[in-house]
Design goal:
Keywords: Methyltransferase, Transferase. The protein is of the alpha/beta class. Helices cover about 40% and strands about 20% of the residues.
């Protein structure tokens, strides 16, 4: 729900006519540098979905890990017009997946409920995707678990497929507000630390790897393409 507020999708928190101070807090939270970075991250993911679907057409298979409410779908032309083969949203939270099913199930988006442990152990048998991405899961993982996640998701790609892992960068202006008031404490990573998440993958299997940033350089995406 917090992300929905930050995206401007649901402003129900204001329905009870808050006083001026609450209004100011809400306005700051939804327009802080971190909030703007999250909205930019959403646009970047939607563009990656559309680029994949443009390239692969009706055969495009996309896997979203830790998808939350999957609100990037609102910005994706491919999702809006059903121009994909399969989109699967994985999340440990059943309530999040119920929102996804209600909002995007009619467009052909499917959901998968499971734990992080099941994902890391390979129990879910996910394979041969053109795009696998996680916008914010790495923010909550220590390095060792992040390496395991990157390895597992990379192996879920088909040859030529692309992995995208998002992460907040260090030194974000105004981050103390989110950390202090909302108790939101991501595991920040610099670019070199993001590249280190690929250490569990045989480098011969990686066709290319790079780190890309949002326009304000507050969020980074590790991008890795599987050889083939």
């Amino acid at each position: 729900m917090l992300l929905d507020y930050l995206y401007g999708i649901d402003n129900g928190a204001l329905d009870d006519a808050p006083d001026g101070r609450r209004q100011q807090l809400f306005d700051y939270a939804t327009n802080s540098p971190a909030a703007r970075a999250l909205r930019c991250r959403r646009r970047m993911i939607a563009r990656a979905i559309d680029d994949t679907c443009l390239r692969r057409g009706a055969e495009a298979r996309i896997l979203c890990i830790g998808g939350g409410h999957f609100r990037e779908a609102e910005l994706s032309r491919a999702v809006r017009h059903g121009q994909f083969g399969e989109i699967l949203v994985f999340d440990p939270d059943k309530e999040c997946l119920r929102v996804v099913d209600a909002a995007y199930g009619p467009r052909g988006v499917r959901t998968c409920h499971g734990s992080l442990g099941q994902l890391l152990s390979g129990q879910l048998q996910l394979s041969r995707y053109d795009l696998v991405y996680s916008a914010g899961l790495c923010d909550h993982l220590e390095d060792r678990t992040g390496v395991q996640l990157a390895m597992r998701l990379f192996h879920a790609l088909k040859p030529g497929g692309k992995l995208l892992l998002g992460n907040f960068r260090t030194r974000i202006a105004g981050i103390g507000y989110l950390e202090g008031l909302l108790d939101w404490r991501p595991h920040y990573r610099r670019d070199a630390q993001l590249f280190a998440l690929l250490l569990g993958i045989d480098y011969n299997d990686i066709a290319s790897a790079r780190v890309i940033h949002d326009i304000g350089r507050r969020i980074a995406f590790l991008e890795a393409v599987r050889y083939g």
